[in-house]
Specification:
Blueprint (H helix, E strand, L loop, with lengths): L2 H24 L3 H19 L11 H27 L2 H23 L8 H16 L16 H27 L7 H25 L2 H10 L3 H21 L5 H7 L4 H10 L7 H18 L1
Length: 298
Amino acid sequence: MNLTAFLLILVSVFMHAAWNFLGKKESPSSAFFFIAAVAGALFCLPFVFFSGVDFFAIPAKFWYILIASVSFNLIYFFALASGYRCGDISLVYPLGRSLPVLLTAGVTLLLNIGGKPLSTNALIGMAVLFVGCVILPLQKWSDFKFQTYFSKVIFWVLFISFGATGYTILDSMDMAILKTVSFSNGVLRAIFFQFAAEVLISFGMFWLVIFSARERAELKRIARSYAPWLAGVFTAMAYILVLLAMNQVSNVCYIQAFRQMSLPIGMLAGVFILKESCSMPKIVGIILIVSGLVMTSF
């Protein structure tokens, strides 16, 4: 990973942790993420006018892949809201963000779509990361048994990971297609992609909200709050930086791995601001996860 990619991802991880914290603190719901998606689209809209894109030059394959990616995004946001409702951010956030590193590596290796093969150092780092993921849910060391991992929180974490893995791989493929289309520069290309994705995500989240009485009531309650609108801007900005970084690495797995440097930020916010529990296994787990991510990224 070169310095440009490193700096882009470093800024994005702080924004990513910030919008997740807002979602957990304010209202972990589909309504919150619907407003956030609308805010993200509105943030990107002015820049789209200056992107210089020729819509008719964009291949149909791009839109098919984008629709598939948005489907994974909807799974991700719905599972994220559900996970935050029944679990601590200091548990859901690290697990939901780190497991996709392993899944992305497995899928790209299986389908041979990730680019250059992962280094030995990266593979060892992923093994360390996996051990950290196993330890993190434990409240005490004696909880290390199968029953611990059959909970509602872990169920939603798996769906969060599934969604994040899907949209990361598909977005990498779509950005490669978009590079063949005329744009004034790479930044506007990334913003255009984010705008298109946010519009489709808004449409999908709208239906998740409209068919739920609880979500409709929640939408009315938080519509005037600053939190979902600010979260939406942070979401858009964070992922635009990720999209730009995708063009700077030899394998998308490195992007997925280093993005997880936001994990200790999210965990510390949960423990010190939201006053969530902090057990010794949780501390050891997050140290192993971050150590594994560092090994994977360099």
